[in-house]
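Before any further analysis, we paired sequence with structure tokens, yielding the entry below:
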Amino acid sequence: MQLPYECQIGLRYLRAGRRSGRNSFISFMSLVSIAGVGLGVAALIVVLSIMNGFQRDVGARMVAVLSHIEIYDARGILNDWQATARDAARNPAVQAAAPFVELPGMLLQEGEMKPALLRGILPEQETRVADFMQGKNAAALAALKPGAFQIVLGAELAKALHVKTGDNVVLAIPSQQASLSSAMPQTRRFTVAGTFDVGHFEFDSGMAFVHLADAEQVLHVDAPIGLRLRIADANQAPQVARELKFSLNGNYLVRDWTQRNATWFAAVQSQKHMMFIILTLIVAVAAFNVVAMLVMSVTDKRADIAILRTLGASPPSIMKIFVVQGLLSGLLGVLAGTVFGVLVAWNLPGIASGIEHVLGVQILDKNIYFITSVPSQLLWSDVGGVVGVAVLLSFLSTLYPSWWATRTNPAEALRYE
């Protein structure tokens, strides 16, 4: 199928300067415009992939420790958690349940003092709801025995306290009988039974596990305070939590894992949106190169435009010629940037690891970012959005120069030819 003459001329203008050796500066500007759009598109794809990977990896580590769904009794404790677990299991999405007790406190050992969130668990039940209960972690938590007052510390927390398996630590929590005049904390000595490592610094440095019976004794209660549920798909936790809130018999508070970390997820989404806007401006700046290239091309082709007009070409046809020329430059940049960005996003962890090895630095500090390796998750929906925005900006950048080409006066343009 033969292309319309506007497309043929626009394509010829795009490549004629490089092929014939004339108008080298216009050809250079064309290359700059293609490279600018390509780099902007590649940067957008890579950055959005990093944001997606960061959210995925940190979220997975959160879900490994946190409950998909937590159920609390409004009265304070679950006197019959087994019955509540049976009621919750009627929902087909619920796979397992485990009781727990949580209490914030301070851990002390030979002058070192660190805050920690202690969770009392039944090890045999916890393995059914916690993803991190595998390998060494599962073996350490399985060692917890009722009445032995043993504790399993996060690896970073144990390192900060300078303790190892078999050492003793002292737990200090606010006294249940404390008054304004006497606020001495309640203390209890625990033996370190092991450590766990989930790869999330916040949990590894500030969380510890004890047996449920020991936690209840420390808190002076005779039942767990909540129930942790595991569901088939963690992403469906908000929907399942709403269903349970209406289906459970009793006055229960139901909370899913996204609510517990709502601020973090909102911050990540906000950062992703802002990065998209900022990097889109880079693509927009690159599109101005297309404007400059077309303006110079129109100036250089004034005689050609005049001849086409005298042969009967209409102003819309003249406009289409330069729209095709500019849009092809943008499309070439978008195509090159998409290919480059996708390849980098797919291989980013290896690239980042190589950079760290060569430069001897660590790109991500786990104390700040919770993870130590650069993550990446390429979503084709993001790629499609980036390509769409880049093509639109490239098209818009062709409109004014193309319209200006239609204002050429044939007689004046050919006067000195």
Observations:
- The chain has two domains: 5-61+264-414, 67-260.
- The radius of gyration is 32 Å.
- Residues 86 and 359 are 56 Å apart (CA to CA).
- Residues 24-65 form the longest helix (42 residues).
